[in-house]
Amino acid sequence: MRVNKLTPGYNLRWESSRMMLPEHREQLLEEMRKQQEFTPAILDNDQLQEIDRVIVKSIETRQAVTITYAKKHGPAYFFGWIQKVDINEGWLKMFHNADTLTIPFKRIINVEING
User: Which InterPro entries does the record associate with it (predicted)?
Assistant: First the structure.
């Protein structure tokens, strides 16, 4: 291999002086952020009805559930009991020990009863 000033590591004096315009850097960073964002699949009516059925059963029997919901960079999980459901505003509130979590319905991916 022939070594010249473009070979990585052989032009150390100028290696770190490569420049990029701030506008280009921001554009590249924005593209990387968009690629890393998590977009959950759209649930069909059967899946939504199953989630609704599990939530109602959990409230009636006071059983704990594990809920899978969408966060910005991927799915997240929360184990606990459903404390309150607000159909008008579209969210539910869960608790486990001192932790509480309010989740909008549109971010819910799955709900499973534990126990």
Answer: YolD (IPR014962)
